[in-house]
What does this fold into?
Amino acid sequence: MSAKPTTAALKPVAAKPPQAPRGRPSSRETMLDAAVAVALEQGAGKLTLDAVARRAGASKGGVMYNFPTKEALLEALLERLTSHNRQASEAIAAELPDQPGRALKAYVMNSVRDPDEDDRVSGALVAVVNGSPELLQRVAGYFSQRFEIISGDVSFDRAALAHVATEGLWLMELFQISPFNAVQRARVVQLLSALAEQDLPDVTA
It folds into this structure.
């Protein structure tokens, strides 16, 4: 999901409950699809209600019925991204053995797959989200809730190290700055998967 580069310095907060969606689901999804297209084709800086209306072949009033402000549109995009991410991890977890670390391994497996449209949208939205404290809080809240899930049945050390390493790999690949070749990346993924499956040695002083 997401605006990941900017959340590391934030103190995680509870995510603000989303407001009830306005408009027909099909209409909202059409507008969100149009917003995704604008962000990917023109950049998030060009993501305006007018641009979404043009891309969707709708009136600006039709867009505003679903999303009265640009902020509301961005909130809905973030909610869609985080929802897709949760669903993908849950689908992977459902295929794994029911044992401690299942949620953590599902998170790692979902995060190291080949980038998809949601990942590209997340990258496109980074600058926009970084300029909105409220959107940053939503992303931070999602990170906090997700970490609570993946660390629920394993040690903090194991979950934290896997989380930091996985997010780092995701971020480097999102911006195409990873130093790893294909063989090295495969080894990193193998190490992350192993970490998700077993505890670390006790390094307490």
About this structure: The radius of gyration is 18 Å.
